[in-house]
Amino acid sequence: MNQKLEEQKEKIMPDGKAMILAYDQGFEHGPRDFLEHPESANFDYILDIAKRGGFTGIVLHAGLAEKYGLEIRDSQVPLILKLNGRSELYTEEDPYSPQLYSVEDALSLGATAVGYTVYSGSKCEDVMQREFARITREAHGKGIPAIGWMYPRGKSLLDKRPASKTLEMALEEQEKTSLDIDATPSIVAYGARIGLELGADIVKVKYTGSVESFRWVVQSAFPTKVVMSGGSLTETDEEFISRVKGVLTAGAAGIAVGRNIWQRKDPLTISNKIHQIIFGS
Ligand code: FBP
To answer: Vertex 3, ends 224 and 191: CA angle to 5°?
Structure first.
């Protein structure tokens, strides 16, 4: 057993449960995500939510991690350094999110874990899958966990004359639901499984719309842990909370979300409710 790795996992997932605050959207989507609540553009505001909301990790790129190194350490919220990223200004249908930082950078910034986005299904999947495979090997060698943002995406997924059996299944699922193709159970489960195969300790995936379908995602990734990604702000707190309950019932470890927390008027109230649901306190 890799003792250090297990200890680091316990920090971001105490008793196997995770409540992670994602704050890499300023890079991925740009400052438009902060417009509704301009205070959310300020990292002091976000770190306060992470700390007082009882989050078990905060996801950042290296810029903020470096500038707020002392404050993050003082907060005792474990840092998860996102190693790759891309802006939404790049609009090709087959996305690539290049690796920007190394596991070594993460360690020097005091990170407890590293994260990386893999767009399986993109023309560039080979590069991202190879980069993430190397990252998981290196991270485990240094005793820190790796989290895969497993987001299948790309032109092939938009093909209405499917070339793969999985896509055929996804299109059938889509016909019966209002899900986007990249949130259909077959696609999400496949992404989660690729994360397991590449060595991820945790996979972060989109919600598939029901407890039953998410259970299959969790089973497909096992023994890798699964956390739900938040997506855009739901209309009500209740709607989001019912998703959180659903994924926990399905066997997920918890959540790794951003906008559904810090885009709300009262982020601490919803954080406390979610904390109660995940940890019972
Ligand atoms: P949200 O909870 O705000 O959706 O954040 C989750 C996340 O994975 C972020 O870490 C990342 O910046 C963003 O979603 C990517 O979103 P998109 O699906 O638009 O690429």
So the answer is: 15
Tens digit of each residue's pLDDT (9 = 90 or more) over 196-232: 999 999 999 999 999 999 999 999 999 999 999 999 9
- pTM here is 0.97
Q: Cβ-count burial of 239 within 10 angstroms (0-12 exposed, 13-18 middle, 19+ buried)?
A: exposed
Q: Are the C-beta atoms of residues 227 and 59 closer than 8 Å to each other?
A: no
Which residue puts its alpha carbon closest to atom 10 of ligand 1? 22
The conformational region for residue 109 under phi > 0 = left, psi -120 to 50 = alpha, else beta, is alpha
Radius of gyration of the chain (CA): 18
Beta strands in the chain (DSSP E): 18-22, 57-60, 79-82, 113-118, 146-150, 202-205, 225-229, 254-257
Residue nearest to atom 8 of ligand 1 (CA): 229
- Whether 116 sits among the annotated catalytic residues: the reply is no
Centre of ligand 1 to C-alpha 123, Å, is 21
Distance from Cα 229 to the centre of ligand 1, integer Å: 7
- Residue 24: strand, helix, or coil: coil
